[in-house]
Amino acid sequence: MRKLILYIATSLDGYIARADGRVDWLESVPNPDQLDYGYADFLATIDTTLMGNATYQTILGFGGDFPYPDKTNYVFSRQRGQADTAFIRYVEEDPATFTAHLKNQPGKDIWLVGGGQLNTVLLNAGLIDQFIITLAPVSLGAGIPLFGPDAVETPFKLIKSESFETGFVQVVYEKVPPPTPS
């Protein structure tokens, strides 16, 4: 079975973006050696992305070419009848049902790009297998949280942590398997 991995950056206070969706604060931390924090290696392990429509619109707002043209990209939207593009397919069905089905298909792992609402739905459905969270050395005070207020308590175990000279810290957590019946 394919793993669903939430690979994302957050501020120290748990926000993935400003309230208006901007992530300019990620570029505010000096990175003179142009570290990619394992991003290229991670991209090689996935062949599919999942994102909410607001996250997709933020990505389009960066300008330039679409960043994942060699992946199968799904965008969840509540708006009906949106036309697919050369690089993305819109999904109107329930995100948890769609993702559970997708995880059972052959392929590489799946990147949950975000945002907070989709993260919450898939966390609550027990579908996120791994978190790779890069903490930025900045506090925003407000914005879009990593998870919404309906997120259920879910245990994970720490697999790895790494700190960088830039002040970023990356942590990897995996889902704790359910206890086996005795």
Automatic annotation (TrEMBL):
Molecular-function annotations in GO: 5-amino-6-(5-phosphoribosylamino)uracil reductase activity
Q: What is the lineage of its organism?
A: Bacteria, Pseudomonadati, Bacteroidota, Cytophagia, Cytophagales
Source species: Spirosoma fluviale
State the superkingdom. Bacteria
A Pfam family reported for this protein in Swiss-Prot or TrEMBL: RibD_C
The name this protein goes by in its record: Dihydrofolate reductase
Q: Which Gene3D superfamilies match?
A: Dihydrofolate Reductase, subunit A
Cross-referenced InterPro entries: DHFR-like_dom_sf, RibDG_C, Riboflavin_Biosynth_HTPR
**All copies of domain Bacterial bifunctional deaminase-reductase C-terminal, residue ranges:** 2-169
